[in-house]
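Dear support,

I submitted the protein below through the web form. The confirmation email said the job was done, but the results page showed an empty box. After a refresh the structure appeared. I'm attaching both so you can tell me whether what I see now is the final result or a partial one.
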Amino acid sequence: MSLSKENISETLVNFVRTNILAQGVAFDSSSNLSKTGVDSYSVIEIILFIERQFGVVIPDTMLIPANLSSIDAMSECVFQLLNNK
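What the results page shows now:
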């Protein structure tokens, strides 16, 4: 699977807009997730979606605040994991 960071990011933004955020919340890939109302349970939902959608397991060592702060940060992690397969 050769996905770009942009493809990954777009998929995740669509998931968050559709399944997590209230309608009308301003949100893009660089938005700080906690400032848009995404709580820790929603972050877990996003992680589970990533694992199902992209077939990767995010190791505990990558589950740090810096990697979970935005969709861009999460996309970078997924991109790295996919390229290390």
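Response: this is the final, complete result; the empty box was a page-load delay. The longest helix spans residues 5-19.
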